[in-house]
Amino acid sequence: MAYELSPFQSIPLDDALLEMLIGEHESITLPRLRRLWSYFRNALSEPTPSGGSTGAPAQAAGLPLRLQNPSTLEGEDETSLRKEVVIENDIAWRIHTLVDFMFPESPTIRSTAPDVRRASEIEGVLNAVFKANGATALWQDAALLGSVYGHVDFLLNCRELDRIGAAGRRSNATSRRQGDTELGNSNAGATSHPATSGLSPEAIASRLVIEAIEPTRAIPLLNHSDYRRLDAYILHFQQLVNEADRSGLLARLSRAMRSGSSAPRRGSITITEIISPTFCQRYEDGKLVMETLNRLGRLPVVHVQNLSQPLMYAGLSDVEPLIPLQDELNTRLSDRANRVTMQSFRMWLGKGIEDFADHPVGPGQMWVTENLDASIDAFGGDADSPSETAHIEQLREAMDKTSGVTPAAAGHIRARVGNLTSENALRISLMGTIAKTRRKRVTYGTGIKQLSELILHALDVYSVFHTRPEERGVELTWTDPIASDESRRIADALAKAQLGVSTSVLRAELGYAETDE
């Protein structure tokens, strides 16, 4: 597939390098990422016409061969000897719990602009932009993708700003000239703010689109001398279209052999987008369909590591260290299911009795034989296996320690809390989850701050809402994931007020907006 790369791109990217990056992504990176998602999602296989499943869930791929491919005897039905497979997804609920602790609601954003009125305007614009893009749902989606894959990227789409930016630039040019005349060129930049487009924060927010990019379709082109810097950002993925698949006969036959279905399918195209600090290009099946100037002068991308990994672009996944433990747990659960199946029912071995198989053992049954050596031996029946039970419990505890999420974090209280108060007991039981949440809030908080700065920079470049670089800083106030006593929180706030903490900070910590009465 040949790409018509723009000669104006100021990045070291040519057709050969792009093909190599896509090839490495599809052959090395993508299978690993899909494995992480399949273990988190544990999707069921395709349904059968009778309502069952054509196979085991996704995590069954980690079971040993003795459970995946049972042997069969000659002449026997294959399903009669198939071993039972038990899959208990202990990963998904832990990931969901981490997301709930991370973002029970959106963090409060406070501008650090020195002017109070200016800070209020900036906060209004940022809150409107984030609300228009989902607010808490946006952060929860990002936290979920980051927990599974190890990192997530925020992409800011500014295409709609061009429609209002031109009018804003014309009006702002006039406003700047008038402001310079009234205040003098030496003081205009320090005492006045350039005029904006005059749109409300809600109207501005509707022109900005923030997308949480999953790593399965993102290919970062890292700077050769600094892994923390991006030279370009490449998106490569398949997109469905509203028409039937028009692939050739051989391709359809090959797909039918793989899936077992020859029914027509919806068509798709291969999308490749290249975003650089100067240009943005979009290819469909290798053909250039769009090329625009990137007026931001920088990549509209904010990279967030789930858990920081030194000297690496990708972060640490919460799913990856749980996979070996999940495989071992599913194996032992399947072995126990097979043991219980074999031992839960009494079985009989009949010797020297004619037609014994045609007359099952039951109340009132009688067999007659002249064979003096005939006998009926009973065997089976459930038996306790303490070592098996202990091993399964130890596996669950290992997953608790590895993930930092215990059943108590999901609402299943099993810890011995003694005589402690309920809140203190809960915090002690959830100490690992709270510590991990605080660690993750460092990386996600930094990402939200960078995204806020990028939004304000974009609005300034497109002459929609002007700000100076020193006005684009923000601070975050996070919500405590554990409910605390309201009277105690108010008492703590009063004590902080006596120490000189500002009212706006205290109201944000208590969860009250500036307009709340």
Describe the fold and architecture.
- By secondary structure, the chain is of the alpha+beta class.
- The protein folds into three domains: about 15-45 and about 55-65 and about 90-320 and about 430-485, no CATH class; about 325-410, no CATH class; about 485-515, no CATH class.
- The protein contains 15 helices and twelve strands.
- The chain has helices at about 15-40, 65-70, 90-100, 115-130, 135-150, 160-185, 185-190, 200-205, 250-260, 325-345, 385-405, 420-430, 430-460, 485-500, 505-510, and strands spanning about 110, 150-155, 210-215, 220, 230-245, 265-275, 280-285, 285-295, 300-305, 345-350, 375-380, 475.
- The strands form four sheets. A five-stranded antiparallel β-sheet has the order 4-5-6-7-8, covered by helices on one side. Strands 3-2-9 form a three-stranded antiparallel β-sheet.
- Helix 3 packs across helix 5 and helix 14 runs antiparallel to helix 15 (about 505-510).
- The longest helix is centred in the last third of the chain and has 31 residues, at about 430-460.
- Residues about 70-75 and about 180-195 have low confidence and may be disordered.
